[in-house]
Amino acid sequence: MVGYTPPTHFGRNFQKQFGVTPSEFLMRKEH
Hints:
By secondary structure, the protein is mainly alpha-helical. It has two helices and no strands. The chain is flat, with a radius of gyration of 9 Å. The two termini are 17 Å apart.
């Protein structure tokens, strides 16, 4: 997943599932 740029529909599905955008999820995961 690292370095993968998600298409718009992926970002929407991701946000529905996790409640955050992919970029926010990655930022939280790093810290």
